[in-house]
Amino acid sequence: MSQTPPALVGSVFERSSASHSAPKAFKPAKAGFPVVQRRSKSAFARNREDLRTRGASRLRNVPIVVPSENAQAPKPVDPDAWRDQMSRENEQRVASMTEEEREQERQEIIERFGSGVGTLLKRVRAARDKQAQPSTGDKISVEEVQAQDGTASLEEVPITAGEKSERNITSIRRESQVSPPPLALSTSSTRPPSRTDRRLRFAELAPEDVHVYDSAPPSPRRKALALPPPSNDGPAISLGQFSGTLKPQEPLPLRPEVNNAEPEEGSAEYIRRRYFPDAPADDPNLAWMQHSSLPSDSELVTSSLRFDLSGKPIPPAVSSTLPTHLGLHHHAEGAHAGYTLDDVFLLSRSTVPAQRATMLGVLARIAKRISKIDRGVTDGMEELAGKEEELRKRIVAAGVEAMTERGSVGARAVEVIWQCIVGWDEDIMAFGGVELESPTDGAINSLRLDFFLPQVATLLSQGEILEGGRSQLLAILHRLAQQSNQFASSIVKAPKLIASVVQTFLLTSIPPTETVSPDPSALELLIILANASRENASALQEPADALLRFITFLPSSSMYPPHLAASLLTSTLRFYTTLATYGLYSHIATTAMEQFTQLGRFIRSNACTSPRLMVAWTDLLAAWMVCAVDPHQTTPGHEILWSQIIGWGWNSEVDDLSDRLGSEEGIWPVWAGIWKVRAVWLEGARVNGIRGGSSERMEVLEIIRDGFEDGKEKDIVLCCLDTIKRELDHLAFVPIARTQLPHLRAVANHATTLASAIRLWLACLPPPAEGPLSSPPFPLPFPRISDLCAKITVHHVWSLLASTEHDTRHAYVYLRSLSELLLGYLRLSRRLPGISENLWAAQALSILSRLLPGDEDFAAQVADDLFSLMTPRWVNALGIQAPSVVWDSGGMLVIKPFVAHTIRPHHDICIGPSSPTPQSISRATTLRLPSITALHTYGLPLTREWTLTPLDHLLRSGSSEVFKALPRYWDASEIDVTRISLLFTRVCRDVLHHFALADFTLTREEAIFGCMKVFMLEHGQTQTDSTEEVFRDRLVGQLMEDLLRPYTVSIAPAAASTPVLPPPIRGDLEQVAIKFLGATPFYQYYTDFVALYDAISFSHPLFARLLLPPTSLRYPVDYRKHLWSDFGHILKTIQTPVDQVICEDIREYLWPVETDPQVLGCYLHNLLKQNLQGFVHLVALHHIACNIWQDLHDDAGWVEDRANKLLEAIVEQGGHELVREVVRYHQSTTGVALVPPQCFAYALDGQTKMARLECVSRLGLGDRLQGLLGFV
Amino acid sequence: MNAPNRFELYVLEDGEKPVEITEDTKIPNAATIKVVKQDHTLGNMLRAQLLAMPQILFAGYKVPHPLHPYFLIKIQTDGTLTPQEVLEQACKKLIGTMSSLEAKFKREFSFKDVEGAVGGVGAQEDPYGGGGAGGAWSGGRDYLDF
Q: What ipTM, to 2 d.p.?
């Protein structure tokens, strides 16, 4: 007891002054006897009094003890202290009792525990004293206390496993002896002993652990945000100005490194260790109890971006320090500020509208930022790069889900959708006239239109949505309509959608109010939809009537602002033009004749200053004139008649307009429009006028000739030529980048102008039947136009057709103007006297490869012209021997159906040409070009091998559509088709080659593949006689030889410095074959080809030559294995001499040296068997020799062991000749390959000889071989 | 279901000639021989034999359709022999090779029987020669293992 003096002193001191008058002094009575106690009080009252005095004394005691404890509190508490305190209390209580009370308690204990309890307790106490003696003196032992009040389960000391088992045993034993007594004494007033030393957690916190943030301001006037300025790295995020002081937060508490360390009291681990030591340490079921700020969590944070409410990413370093009042912590995971994308997605489905709206706003801003990643602006979101499209899909899905909500949620949802669909790439919407679809557009393609479009219709028709939201919806529809024709059709077919668009955006109230006025972009939407397909256009005729209101009120007298009125009028005219391009709705010209007369008067007047309006007007006139040329082509027929056109005098209206125009660059499109109207007028007059419209031609020529000779028109044409040339120079680099597109657009515009001039020139010509031209109707700078067109034809700009870049893939739509120009030029040059037939054929063949879908009619016409040009006389004049038998079966007519199909493979899709013709207005199903990914399914632009396509149809005659719909006159045989096709190919190749148009000439690989097809015609045939085989036809064989001759190896020195040749520029055989074979690998085709050779060839020499190209070292080793290993027995029959191989340079068969053991084994085997002759012998010898002699080997692939084995095999088994060849073999790695016999006759230099001799000597063959090496 | 009867693959129909030779009208010393009711087994063997002969310029065969039990073999010679003669020679050689192979095989097989009897293991051998096969195929491997 002396060890705890303060407590002892306290209690002793206080207690002595308390009720300790215990042994009552005997009070002698007066009579010497005890005074008779009067029982004036009842027993109950006495009891009460007793109780009170005793209770009072106790109550006095308690405060005395407790303060002494509290004063000690900061001191580390001895874990055994409660025991001392307990015993002290017990002793105090015992001491405060009277004798009787003590006796009574004792009796009670004995009664309860039996009489032996006293000795038992004594024994226990003695044992404990003895145990505790060395360390703690006479501290009251645990066991005693436990025995008294049964608190063993509240043992404080954490126990290790070993100790515990021991303790369990003892406690069990003890319990068998002593049953736990009720806490008769200790429970009354003291706290449970186990809690006496429990530490209060906050007491351990240092003052700096408590953070006091500037809380959110009570009034908005106060400066709100309190943030440290961001560190200077990276883009700064600014959430506001900080004026106060702020303590940086300590780094998050880390999980204790050592597992054995004492866990923090009260934590889950602490509880587990104390009470559930058997439970596994990391029970996944209890993972939810884990504290959130664990290191793993912070790693998670760094790997996933967090965004603030403006959609900016928060750097991880900042996100852990931001205060909570910014509203960035309302998420479940972690203590970091900001929301991960998943949080945002989750919260954007919240049932609290405000929260949902906020999060949709955040999503929209995030989408905006993500869309910039595409353009290289990562902005701290590098880790999202590559996942843009996936996120876009998710974001747009979140938006679509919420768009039906009312209020701000719906508005924000529309914004989200707009951001993902329109705002993602607004530049792309500038590409009109082409489907924007691309396989990477996952977000737009994933949109469920059948759900989305009715929602849009509902939103628009309910009129609840705000102005901004409405125009966003319109823009979304616009973009979707541009996506593909299918999308556009869905939009038109969606119930009530178009009606509500028209109602909302166009048919606004008259007179206009301040807020609501018609929106020209809705008209643009209608134009795009009508462009997409004929069905759409005819469905859109219905609202077209209502648009007349924009024509009725001319800009001069309109109630709308002039600018708006002009653009509404322009768009309406363009919409009517679009409809007229399908031959639809042209009756409006008659119905609203008065309005259009007014309009014409306005446009001719000086009040009209908008070139766009003038262009729209001339285009509409031209389109209606085309409709009127043949009244049967419009839908329905006879809607507009040529006599009406004449009556309205549009021609003279155009003249009036041209009189008041200048010649500055901005006006050129108007000039183009005027020329187009005149050209169409003359073309129509040629059909409908008297005597082929010759008087109309005279009339027009009177007006325009002066201008083209020396006036505004001449200036414009010349300037146009200059500008195109200049702008083309800007496009000279490949690949064409986004920044160059303005140049391309300018080229396209000017090309249209020039094409209109050429068209007018052609329209002014008398019909070709009237004989050759004596003089041009009016002059054009013909040589310069020729130069320019030649330049355009071979320009790099056509590489856009193969573009896969996201930015430029749709820009090929601009090439349409260029091909229109080239077409015009081709027609022009046919009539020019200075152009020879050969030259024209070359021009036609090259320009055919530059035509785009939509030009099919013209391409077919050019092909027909070419066919009619190819008379026997003309072909013979080219120096090509074509016996008359070729022409007997019908000449070029034989392949005409095939070529027509090649040009127009689709029968259901007909893309309208860029300038409509009377034929096209009834046939066109769409006016838009396909997306570039679908371009290859169209016939145009023609590939270089288009002249060989009849062979494709012969090979697939069973499924070919051409054979199902052959014309009646067609009765050619397989051989006829092959002959004509090969002849045509040959002629085209020679013509193009003559004019050095290398880009359009058949490449070697294409020629090889084409000839393979001829042989493959026998694949699967069952005839037994070789006479039926097409390739055995003498003419076919001859034509194939001729076709391949320019591609056989040229012995001319090649200037390549490296032994390994680069692959062909325009695709190797495998790439060439893709177009015909589709998904079938070329290897499979080759195996069939080899098998066919094996079965039927009778060692046909050309067949054998065609086996070789895929075995060059450019191609994978599988081809060589197939030929040399699997079909080794046919090598004997391949007797191709070295100079007959079809390749650029035989070095492509020689280097790099073969290392595949199987192929080398075949080489060796066949050499030893003496099977090989000619080229195959050289190849085998080369690779064997190179693997033997280190001086020939080009790289580190030489293996000495293999070299020795090969040499031994050659020397042991080979004939003398073979040994000589191997030993003396030499090949030069640079320059021209040495062919036999030079490669054996080459004088080896001394060093090489010595090295080879050393090598053979090592194998013990030196005696036999040194003679061959020149050492005699 | 509609598969042809098995026997059609090897039984000649009435009046059907097993071999037909067509001289090629276009190529000298060349002929196409149609062999019915035979398949790749004979075709490949014959071609290999033909290619081994020095008079042969070309020899190749094909089975035009897997369900039609015939093959066509095309032979071109250097002119010293006609294709028919070459084919006859090839067939003779092939028969010779086959019979010598058969004789060898039988001899070896009888040796094996004798050794088996001498070894005295044979009494309890299972009727399918399982024990022997197991030994031959190095440790009980099934042919399916290949």
A: 0.78
* Interior angle at CA B9, CA B6 and CA B12, nearest 5: 115
Q: How does residue A300 score in pLDDT terms, banded at 50, 70 and 90?
A: very low
Residue range B27-36, pLDDT digits in tens: 889 999 999 9
pTM of the predicted structure, to 2 decimals: 0.73
Cα Rg, chain B, nearest whole Å: 21
Does A1020 lie at the interface with B, CB-CB under 8 angstroms? Answer: yes
DSSP A1131: G
- Reported as a single tens digit per residue, the pLDDT across A1162-1199 is 999 999 888 788 899 999 988 988 888 877 776 667 78
Judge: B74–A1096 Cβ closer than 8 Å, yes or no.
yes
Residue A998: CB atoms within 10 A of its CB come to: 12
- B50 within 8 A of B56, measured Cβ to Cβ: yes
CA pair distance A518, A507, nearest whole angstrom: 7
- Share in percent of chain B as helix, strand, coil (round to 5): 45, 20, 35
Q: Which of A1018, A1021, A1024 to mutate to test the interface with B (most CBs of B within 10 A)?
A: A1024
The winner for highest mean pLDDT among A46-55, A656-665, A1006-1015 is: A1006-1015
| A962 to A856, A893, A897, A973, B75: CA distances (angstroms) | 17, 14, 7, 14, 38
Residues in chain B: 146
How far apart (Å, rounded) are the C-alpha atoms in residues A985 and A948? 7
Element (H, E) at A165: helix A161-177
Torsion of CA B31, B33, B39, B43, to 10 degrees: -40
In one-letter notation, the amino acid at residue A449 is: L
Question: Which pLDDT tens digit goes with each residue over A77-86?
Answer: 565 677 788 8
pLDDT band at residue A336 under the 50/70/90 scheme:
confident
Reported as a single tens digit per residue, the pLDDT across A399-453 is: 998 888 888 898 899 999 999 998 888 888 888 888 888 877 778 888 888 889 9
Please give the structure tokens belonging to residue A939: 């016939």
Q: Whole-angstrom Cα distance, residue A112 to residue A914?
A: 114
pLDDT of residue A198: 54
Calculate the dihedral angle through the C-alpha atoms of A580, A581, A584, A588, rounding to the nearest 10 degrees: 0
Question: For residues A854 and A909, what is the distance between their CA atoms, to the nearest angstrom?
Answer: 10
d(CA A145, CA A862): 116
Which B-chain residues 61-80 have CB contacts (< 8 A) with chain A?
A: 61-62, 64-65, 72, 74, 76
Instruction: Kindly state the DSSP code that residue A153 receives in the 8-state scheme.
Output: G
Q: What percent of chain A has pLDDT over 70?
A: 80
Q: State the burial class of residue A418 (Cβ atoms within 10 Å of its Cβ: 0-12, 13-18, 19+).
A: buried
Q: Do A1096 and B61 touch (CB under 8 A)?
A: no
- Angstrom distance (rounded) from CA A944 to CA A989: 9
Residue A1085 to chain B, least CA–CA distance (Å): 17
Q: How far apart are CA A164 and CA A169, in angstroms?
A: 9
What does the DSSP assignment read for A472-539?
A: HHHHHHHHHHHH-HHHHHHHHHSTTHHHHHIIIIIS--SS--SS----HHHHHHHHHHHHH-HHHHHH
Residue B20 bridge partners (DSSP):
B34
Helix or strand (DSSP H, E) at B31: strand B30-36
The CA dihedral of A148, A151, A156, A162, to the nearest 10 degrees, is 90
The answer on pLDDT for A572 being more than 70 is yes
Burial class (CB in 10 A: 0-12, 13-18, 19+), A691: exposed
DSSP state of B75: E
| DSSP string covering A256-322 | PSSTTSPPPTTSHHHHHHHH-TTS-TT-GGGGGGS-S--HHHHHHHHHS-EE-TTSPEEPHHHHTTS
Mean pLDDT of chain A: 79
